[in-house]
Amino acid sequence: MTGKKGYSLVIVLFVSTIALMLCTAILNISTSEYMMGCYVRDYTKAYYLAEGGIQKALSHLKQNPDYRPNNNWQALGEGHYKITISPKQGTDSIKITSSGRVNKAEVSIIVTADVYIEIDEEVYPDPPHRNVEIRVLSWEYEGPI
Question: Is the pTM of this model over 0.70?
Fold first, then answer.
């Protein structure tokens, strides 16, 4: 019996090491899953902020075809969005770029549209009635998801 005294200590250390490694692996996996979930959540929020910016720009353009927003980030909910409107080179179209940002996640949506203005002086002669029609030609998304 005298030669077997150290075996129980070795077995306990071995089992403890295996259990510690298993717990560390589970903690690492769960932390990674949590971080990926946070990134997906933030990018989804940023996407909808950018889409909201596009809808806001289209609404303002419908009311005033000469509308040009300031290029500053505007706060909304948990994030920010920024809208830019510029003429598209070589065409009569406009390019609307809306970016949404939540924490480190940033998404951009780029819309190309034609704006048609029809002036109807017979309906309202002073000032003349303007019928504005916006046709979206393309809708592009830039982001990781």
Answer: yes
